Amino acid sequence: MTVMDMAKITVNLVVIYVIGGLIMAFVYAKTSPIMFIKAKEEKEAALKLMMPEADKISSLGTWEPHEKHAEYYVAQKCEEIKVTSVKDEKTGKMKEEKECINPSDIGYIVEGFGKGYSSYIHVLASVDKNFIVQKVSILGHGETPGLGDEIEKDYFLNQFKGKSVDNLVVIKGESPDKIQSITGATISSRAVTEDGVRNAVKMLKEKLSGEVQG
Fold it and tell me: Which CATH number fits domain 53-76+108-209: 3.90.1010, 2.60.40, 1.10.3720, 1.10.3470?
């Protein structure tokens, strides 16, 4: 193979890589807004499920458990919802906009992360104005199938309703006041309960009421 042949091959490879990179950039530019909108819609739906009685859920701020981005929200009930029709500047079509009149806080929703057996477990928890847990949901994890993934089951998650910060502790065996560990998955159980939910609720209390519970 001559030097000229090697040069041609090199040039061809560079051209292929450049074209491939441009195609990937083009595809990403087209799909990323769609992905962003879809992720936003899924998150809004998840928040609504955490406190369905709320008319409005708004972000209050962010925090970084385990150096991961997480948000916390206020859930509000509106005295009245005013609906007006406005013209969409992009599409030219009429759309409805809702205005919450005299909103009152009914609770909070917070994201958290717990370090599990084989992954960081992404949790979402809703609490009332007294920071009593109302609901817990698992947004994502990579725990062991058949063991750690039991954290998604209702029999485990239903234990959280009505628990205060002090009661968010995992024990082995039945208890009406604490959280019963999943058999064979104590690490995952504690990751959700003590690292994920408990720390998230403690953060909320510190941020919103100045109280820090041990």
Answer: 3.90.1010
